[in-house]
Amino acid sequence: MALKDARLIYTRNKNTNLQLKVIPGHFATNHSHINYYVDMTAPRMIYREARKVAEVLSRKYKNIVPVDTIFCLDGTEVIGAMLAEQLADAHLGMGSHAKKDVAVVTPETDNTGRLILRDNLKPLVKNRDCVILVASASTGYTVHKGIETVRFYGGMIRGVSAIFSKIRHQDNIQVDSVFTLEDLPDYKSYDFTNCPYCKRGEPIDAIANGHGYSEL
Q1: Domain boundaries of the chain, sorted by first residue
Q2: pTM value?
């Protein structure tokens, strides 16, 4: 069965009125197998949706936590820009008489899979208060890489934010998200060596990563 024919699930967060489209199936990522593909297209790439997500995520930091840099992973730059705007405005309420510039930074991935920053971007992280922004956190693998990278380049991590997260903490840092397992309680992720779909001989429907999915 093609994924386009699958029964779509729409989950809505009761506190924000935001909605996510979820596609059931057998998906393989580079570090796990999952039973749902959570479609982040709208919240990551459509202005009004991204702005709503940023408004929710900004609540943790506004007037409370200083933020200099949004460290974007999983193609979250549009949300990152909206979040930077929210936090720059909020800085006026933290004793400043002018808006604070908040940087939005995206690392590169080298041929070993390591996240790196070019020399011109390093000053936007070193000795700066950083928030790591991801689309989805299921195993914590991507979040962990982000935390390691920010620390390697000398940044101070003030929070981790996601659109959807299965985990609550990673490396002793709280992961805040718009959607949690309370919104999608049937979501499962498995180590590829212990995937029940594979054990039953069910083929993989699609390969998924931070950019989307490709059917096999």
Answers
A1: 3-215
A2: 0.88
Residue 152 and residue 125 in contact, taking contact as beta carbons nearer than 8 Å: no
Instruction: Say whether domain 3-215 belongs to CATH 3.10.129.10.
Output: no
Mean pLDDT of all residues in 73-95: 84
Are the C-beta atoms of 102 and 70 separated by less than 8 Å?
A: yes
More confident residue, 96 or 32: 32
Q: 206-209 and 19-28 as β-strands: parallel, antiparallel, unpaired?
A: parallel
- The rounded distance, in Å, linking the Cα atoms of 157 and 146 is 10
pLDDT of residue 98: 47
Spatial neighbors of 36 by CB under 8 A, at least 6 apart, are: 9, 22, 23, 24, 25, 27, 184, 186, 187, 188
Q: How far apart are CA 91 and CA 12, in angstroms?
A: 31
